[in-house]
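TEACHING EXERCISE
Course module: macromolecular assemblies
Task: Read the component lines below, then compare them to the predicted structure of the full complex.
Student: A.B.
Group: 4
Components provided:
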Amino acid sequence: MSVVGTSVARKDGIGKATGAAKYADDLSIPGMLFGRTVRSTIPCGRVKRIRYDFDTTGFTIVDRRDIPLDGRNVVALIEDDQPFLVERDVRHVAEPIVLLAHADREKLLAADVIIEYEVEPPVFDPEASTESLKTLTIDKGHLDAGFAQADVIVEGTYRTGHQEHVYIEPNGVIAVPEDGGIAIFGSIQCPFYVVKALKSLLGPKAHVRVVQTETGGGFGGKEEYPSMIAGHATLLALKAGLPVKIVYDRTEDMIATTKRHPSIVRHRTGVKRDGTLVAMDVEVILDGGAYITLSPVVLSRGCIHAAGPYRCDNVRIRGRAMLTNTPPNGAFRGFGAPQTIFAIEAHMDRIAEALGVDPVTIRERNALVPGDTTATGQRLTADCSALPVLREAVERTDFRRKREALRGTNRGIGLSLFYHGSGFTGSGELRLASKAALELTDHGVRILVSSTEIGQGTRTMHAQIVAETLGIPYEDVDVAQPDTTLVPDSGPTVASRTCMVVGRILQRCAEDLKRRLGDLTPAEYYRAHGPFTIVREHEPPGWIQWDDETYTGDAYATYAWGCDVVEVELDADTCEVRPLHLTAVQEVGKAIHPALARGQIEGGSAQGIGYAIVEHVAMRDGVMANASLTNYTIPTTLDTPAMDIVLLENPYEDGPFGAKGLGELPMDGPAPAVINALRHLGVDLSEIPATPERVMSACGSR
Amino acid sequence: MKSALSQLSFARPRTLEEALTLLRDEPLVPIAGATDLYVGLNFGTLKAQRFLDITRLEELRGISVTGDRLVIGAGTTYTTIMHSASVRAHWPILADAASQVGGVQIQNRGTLGGNVANASPAGDTLPVLAVADAILQLRSAQSQRAVPFNSFYTGYRQTVLRPDELIVSIELPMVEGKQWFRKVGTRAAQAISKLVMAAVRTEAPRIALGSVAPTPLRLRRTEAALAGGSSIEDAIGVLQTEITPIDDLRSSEAYRRAVAGNLLRRFWAS
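Instructor-supplied answer key:
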């Protein structure tokens, strides 16, 4: 029997296909009220006066004064700087000020709350901002000595815009008063993050239970924000003494919740005539928005990936995340890496052009191989696959010949080479100390983890790992719904860690359990000995050394590798960029479920194509002006190229069956490949999205 | 859904006569496919509360050829139009336009009369009706009148349609010459037009653009320039004086001007 490596039926497939699966907005609890958030309409200033211009009968009204005495008005995350409700100062449009609840949705929506402000001038340009949320520097070798060896110095500035997650289900939760505290049912990526935030809101001794309901996508957008909306529903529910549901509509979700950080990345690179990189000086600026939230760690991952998958002895990467008066930017698939990889991969094609070599040659010359060290000084081992993915992609697409053949046509072809660190950065996994458990049932085993199924296949993939390890049928493995009072804290469902890290803990649980079972099946053991649960904690490899102060050492336990080739067609009349074909060669250690792995790559590549070409967040006066699915366009099937997905497997020795992280990797490659394909067409663009309007400007200035 | 649905109601007549009587007695907003209406309800921008459901009116549906005219009932859906042999034979660019409206679900519900009545300058079929010199048959309980499509709009989302009138049919006189259509949307499908152009290459060329002015626009002076033997570059210069595009969420004035010129050049070279 071999379950791992087989595309078995999804655990959640039938429920979702038949509509039996219940999402937050499908649930209704007797007595339940609906909640609404009244938000700031200015980007910067102070609240002067709040007036309730409606009949308040039947309404529950909450403001900052309703924070419990034992609690704090702060969404606990990395730093304690973002309030659940405005105290006095407003830092961005759509900041929550007042909460309302009512049994009748129409009365709730009609209620008019008038807020008067004292307005102050906002800052929207991260380069004009004087307040940094985080700075860091990565230093390797001697930059000056490196530049002294250079024959050519190539400089470039690259910009990326906001990106909206567009998970199909907007943010939503239901808060239910329970045991003197609160139970939350909601669309959530990281149930224990919500527990932490609510214990800060209500006081450490408060009863808090968080249950993940079926979740219609996350992409990072339900990593930190659910803590906010859950806090709001909690405050209303506790004041009303009744369950309260808050579900955003698409516009509120787009205006109020997080986006991908916009970036400005400057490269100054010294290179020898033969193409060898000798010095890389990189400056990374992220627009953090109005609160710190996750910006420090997004900046960290972005900077660590900023030198690309290349060997260079002298590297300096300086990063800063700046405060601006927009809603905080946050987690989004790739977490800083898509921005910096866009920059380095667009820059590599400029370097190639400056040297008169092709894009493949410059990458072959410098791609990391086992034994090389990264910018943080991490020495790579046999699971480094930069050259294998590059060679496979180049050969499969006949890249060099095609590039010549397309010259002079309205088609261009470009590639990108990239990598993505699996799991939390540095000592992060050690600090998380994630746990997973297996319990016996009367017909097999049940997985107990807080990892969430958000469409990516968590339940299925975990069940495969357990079934394979125990040598029992896949159907005998159940997966418990994440409920923080019943499952251990497996860490957040982020950072491409759910398979590699949590899957590995489950594998260890299953190995222990198998020894205990002896010759019995789980069901036989259960009947003979009764209930039994095994819990294991993550054991990061002992060799990982990381210094948070100097940003040196082993940034990630392993990396997944990718090379994308994109062919585009440019419409001469309209400057529309049409992606015709995408080849994605991605090395993921081991594809536990090949169909799901391909699905991740297809979906991530489509999201990357959207990021590259059509997804444009129009910010006006600090607020998303095109906050609808009509005006914020994501690719339809007709905007998505034909895809050739190639999975390579070079096992990571400490992953389950060799698996590495895969979820974020496919997001990194398409944007630079598209920009490089445009460059091949003669369009010199260094900013995404490459909208027709921008392409036209670039063509005009040629 | 921002609108209070409990406050909404609609009348559902079975015949056109009944509908027109209802419309005479009370200001009602007609609903056919409701594809634009739902957007307004969702965003809370539609203030109307009483509606007239005209989807049951057989009199408003169907496509026929009468003499030298293609006659399309106002309640005919885009799906019916794009599959109609008559439309494909006589006004193939109307079928093209219908096939590029929204997505399949919108095409199944949305109607040609609705596209006209909604009066958006971005309506995908409207430049086709403009170059067809289409005639709109309007009826009220008391009267019937024929209004040239090119006189129907008086300003941004303003028309000559009276509150007691319904558009019952749209007549497209047949035309000789090569027809040309191009929609430039915000993406390949399910998109609102940044620019939409219809044209007919006859002795006197006909050209119309959408999304470049407060109403769909027939480019009379550009047509005259081309008919009079002007060079295409001079004609593009005239076109630039006829259009008044704006910067909005979907595109920019500069882009719309440049693309309008490029499309005219492409049409003229075709």
